[in-house]
Design goal:
about 70 residues; alpha+beta; about 25% strand
Length: about 70
């Protein structure tokens, strides 16, 4: 699977996240269902206690929310 890399600013810091297209689609769907901007959703995931990279935390979050 090919990853898509997106750059954004989280809490005032530039970062980039590489996820497979399917994870980006799932994250967008979750953000719509929760009525929250995708950037704010990623910030929320980033601020939670997590082990490993932000990309890994996003994948785990998606698995728990689908």
């Amino acid at each position: 699977m090919n990853q898509l890399k997106k750059s954004l600013v989280l809490s005032g810091h530039k970062t980039s996240i590489a996820l497979e297209k399917e994870f980006w689609v799932a994250l967008e769907e979750i953000s719509k269902n929760q009525n929250i901007d995708i950037k704010k959703l990623i910030e929320k995931i980033d601020k939670k206690d997590r082990n490993g990279s932000l990309a890994s935390a996003i994948r785990v979050f998606i698995l728990k929310n689908i």
